[in-house]
Specification:
With 328 residues, this protein is mainly alpha-helical. The protein folds into two domains: 209 residues, Alpha-lytic protease prodomain-like; 105 residues, Cation efflux protein, cytoplasmic domain (Alpha-Beta Plaits), CATH 3.30.70.1350. Helix content is 66%, strand content 9%. The protein has nine helices and three strands. Strands 1-2-3 form a three-stranded mixed beta sheet. A hairpin with a 2-residue loop joins strand 1 and strand 2. The longest helix is centred in the N-terminal third of the chain and has 32 residues. Bound molecules: zinc ion (2 copies). One zinc ion binds next to loops.
Length: 328
């Protein structure tokens, strides 16, 4: 099963809109910063710079990640999605560091923000646009099963929170008398708080990328595979072990050991395994592959009859059983 062409086009269009709106946001927020000179507003604008860089990189990954497997990359290119998410998280962390730096410099120079009213209006506009864009991206990402788009949407939504924080800080400054000495402290303090939030968002994206790149165990997906095996289980299959799976984009790769009677012919065993492999892929509803290694109950296949099947060997296979590691 491959991604339908219409989904592919929808993903691409969503990424393009995300990029264009990101550029618009950058313009709005930079404009607000130039008008006000506020460290708080600059923190929001810097985050936007990072955002545009991340979305541009996402574009490249999109093209690459959806290409089918080829001679160079026989497992496909789906892991590029995690690369994109990790890059996005990494640059967000850098942006947080830049914001703290700017806020501290602002404190040292005692820089007074001005034209707060205009800045406030521009940030409100940016937050509303981001709220609409972020919700839509998450929706499209889930619909087309694209981890990148969904992560991008989550990022845009977290920017709405950043902007709300900016609005609270800017609102307080607006209420205070102009050129009050505390303004500088409030401006820098709010900027640093926002940087901590942005740092947390970036860290979460980096962790998500690590999970995907390092093939972290996915008990829920393993459960679906074990249920699929149980559904068409032959009574002579005694055990499943060494089951593991990894994902790459839309594709899932599963392998495990299956214990079958030692006297089964290669032809019979192959037919059973082939049927099971097809069945698992159908149940998971994905592309990818299932590879089954055959075991039999004897350490020495020349000694004749297999031991009788124990009653415990007829229970449905469990996730704990399937994922335990056995040598051989
Ligand atoms: Zn390639
Ligand atoms: Zn084995």
């Amino acid at each position: 099963m491959t991604v339908p062409g219409s989904d592919q086009r929808l993903r691409f269009r969503a990424a393009l809109i995300s990029l264009l709106v990101g550029l618009l946001m950058l313009g709005l927020k930079m404009g607000a910063y130039l008008l006000t000179g506020s460290a708080t507003i600059l923190s929001d604008a810097l985050e936007s710079v990072v955002h545009v860089a991340a979305v541009a990189f996402m574009f490249w990954c999109f093209r690459f990640a959806s290409a089918p497997p080829d001679a160079e990359h026989p497992y496909g290119h789906g892991k590029a999605e995690y690369l994109s998410i990790g890059f996005e998280g990494g640059v967000i962390v850098l942006a947080a560091a830049a914001i703290v730096w700017q806020a501290v410099v602002g404190l040292i120079h005692g820089h007074q923000p001005g034209r707060i009213d205009l800045g406030f209006a521009l940030i409100v506009l940016a937050a509303l646009i981001n709220l609409a864009l972020g919700s839509w991206l998450v929706h499209v990402g889930r619909k087309t099963k694209s981890a990148i788009l969904e992560a991008d949407g989550q990022h845009v939504l977290s920017d709405v929170w950043t902007s709300l924080g900016v609005l609270v800080g800017v609102g307080v400054m607006w209420l205070m008398p102009a050129n009050h000495p505390a303004l500088v402290w409030i401006d820098s303090g709010v900027a640093i708080l926002l940087a901590l939030f942005i740092l947390w968002v970036g860290g979460r994206l980096v962790r998500q990328a690590m999970r995907g790149l390092l093939d972290e165990a996915d008990p829920q997906m393993v459960g679906r595979v074990v249920a699929a095996i149980n559904a068409i289980r032959d009574p002579s299959w005694r055990d499943v072990h060494n089951l593991r799976l990894r994902r790459s984009g839309d594709a899932i790769f599963v392998d495990f050991h299956l214990v079958v009677p030692s006297l089964w012919s290669v032809a019979a065993a192959h037919a059973a395994v082939e049927k099971l492999e097809q069945h698992i892929l159908r149940v998971l509803g994905t592309q990818g592959s299932v590879l089954i290694h055959l075991d039999h109950p004897h350490s020495d296949p020349t000694v004749g009859m297999d031991p009788p099947i124990d009653s415990s060997e007829t229970n449905p296979f469990t996730v704990a059983q399937a994922t335990r590691f056995k040598q051989g």
